[in-house]
Structures are given as structure tokens and as C-alpha cells.
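Subject: for your reference before the review

Hello V.,

The reviewers asked for a structural picture of the protein, and I figured it would be easier to keep everything in one thread rather than splitting it across files. Below is the amino acid sequence we used in the manuscript, unchanged from the supplementary table.
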Amino acid sequence: MYIVNTSFMVESAVHEPWYRFFVEKFVPYLRARDFGNDAAHRIVFTRVLTDTGDSHYTYSLQVEIPDTAEYQRFVSEAMDEYTRIAGPLFSERALHFTTLLKKIAL
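And here is what came back from the structure prediction:
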């Protein structure tokens, strides 16, 4: 099992419209593409909290996937769609990067 982790750093000036876009448009898009609809594709969305008084918001989207083929599908479908829409709307004011994590049983 793997986890696709995408971190988002969003400037305060665009936070509200970005958050609305993310929750109302992007998460439903993920579910429509079968990410987050079953146990093999669980979605976790969190806000990273700091005590440094950052002037931006940081979020983490984690999607559980069964294999690396699903990672490739996630990147090519979901993150390409995110970039296609969010890029023109928010430009450099909402940055992101994606990493692949392998779950290890303890």
C-alpha cells in the first residue's frame, strides 16, 4: 500500500477562493475519478499547524493507493487537472509538490 502526499502552500490573499475551489471542485473531481471512494483510495486532508506565525496556509492531501500504477494515474489525471485549473487562478500564490510514500507495517 502507498500514500500519495501532496503539500500545498497557499498565500493568505488567495486562501478563501483556493480553499473553496479545493473542497467544492477538486475533491469531488478526485472522487469522480475513483480516488477516495473505497478503502484502497482513502483521502485524508489536513492543515499543517505551526507556532511560527506563518503568513500562509499549508495543507496536506494524502490519498491511499494500492500500487505504483495508481500513483502514475493520480499524477497524470488528478494533479494535471489540479494544475490546469489552479495554475491560472492562483499562479505562484498556491504552490504544491507531490511525493509517494510506501506504507511500512510496524
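For the response letter, the relevant points are probably these. The two ends are 14 Å apart (CA to CA). Strands lie at 2-11, 43-48, 56-65, 94-102.

Happy to draft the paragraph if you're swamped.

O.
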